[in-house]
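Repro:
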Amino acid sequence: MTDETAAAPQGAILPPKPQARAGKVSLLEYLRLFQRDILSAQPAHLYRAWMAEMKTPFFRSFLCNEPELVHRVLRGSPHDFPKSERIRFGLKPLLRDSVFITNGALWEHQRRIIDPAFEGGRLREVFPAMWDSGVAAVERLRAKADGQPLEIEAETSHVAMDVIFRTMFSMPIEHEIAQAAFEGFRAHQAAHPVANLAAILPLPKWVPAFHSKQTRETAAAIRALIGQLATMRAGEIENGTAPDDLATKIMTTPDPETGRVFETGEMVDQVAIFFLAGHETSAAALAWSLYLLATHPDWQEKLAAEATEVLGDDVPVFSIINRLKLSRAVFREAMRLYPPVPMFVREAACPMTFRGRSVKKGAQIIVSPWHLHRHERIWDNPDAFDPGRWETENGKAGLRDAYVPFSEGPRVCPGAAFAMAEGPLILSMFLRAFRFEPVPGAVPMPVAHLTVRSDAGIRLKLTPRA
């Protein structure tokens, strides 16, 4: 690891990054900034600090950047660092008791059922569905590539949701329920803030939730649609007509310790997070990848050449994934600069000590991929787009010590391998078919709501390749 940031290459275009907060602010002002955008609400010193402490009248937070501390929190026992109740509260309308926000015995039960569905062999089985989603997306873009700027986040959201529906329920996004769910998730993303008053203040449990009407309504609509899908699949399983996809695998896998399987209502909670995490994170990472390539045409042409060679036979062979090395490096670099989930928030289950400071039970423990991935004492040229960094000693050390877009340890995202197959594949299919160019003056600024997206969309020009 380096102690100082090496100078960026002369003339290099640094990707957009929100300006950090200047100086100290009151708690009320911080909450206002936080609700608007979690990234720009943070002070600049977090990009150099190994740890930072925040005190309020209601709670104390510790943000950890030191690799040893990060590993202790994420790789340690989930009972020592459970998911924060404050964050659980904010996601409850949609996720209820999803594996993403549960703790303890319930979480362990859920992971014992879910993890087998995402093992390596299953990824090979669903790969043709990913391929079909990519083919369909290229055709949609071909019909729109008329030289006019295109809002690319909408397109990556479309293909990411299509992948989820094809691999989870064996249906394309054109299906009536799938299309309604896709539109519902976009509305929920727009309505849902990162934090609200009840997630910050220590109010009694009997106090009504302070979620907006739109947040509650969009969450209820999405859950109703997922309920239809889960009920349909339960009937197909009972009749012996269910397709062998991820939904069937999850709904028929018993907990090896208790023998229990998910009931239909429990399945709704789990599908909600698969749709949210699998769709939102993949869509955001893919959109940022395309923007970064549009602004770095040298890397774009390298990827296009690789894609043309590797995808040349247009046959969905799973081994293709291992040959898309440049595409994987670019996708990985995009998630370093723009990690889909900007912060992981845990709680200290018991008193402990971090870097000589006393951490009381109940304190918030924050690991911020946004700051960790751009840390000036870990990465060379932390704000630069450089997919070649993964071949350097500094990049390899950073990958090992400070790269956590999917978290790590017991609570690592079960779909991490799924995302790292889907992202490079779709990216390569797009680059083989089109040349992407930035729109002059339309520089997207990252903001964090449910995931790290742009403030006003990402607009790019598409030109079909010969």
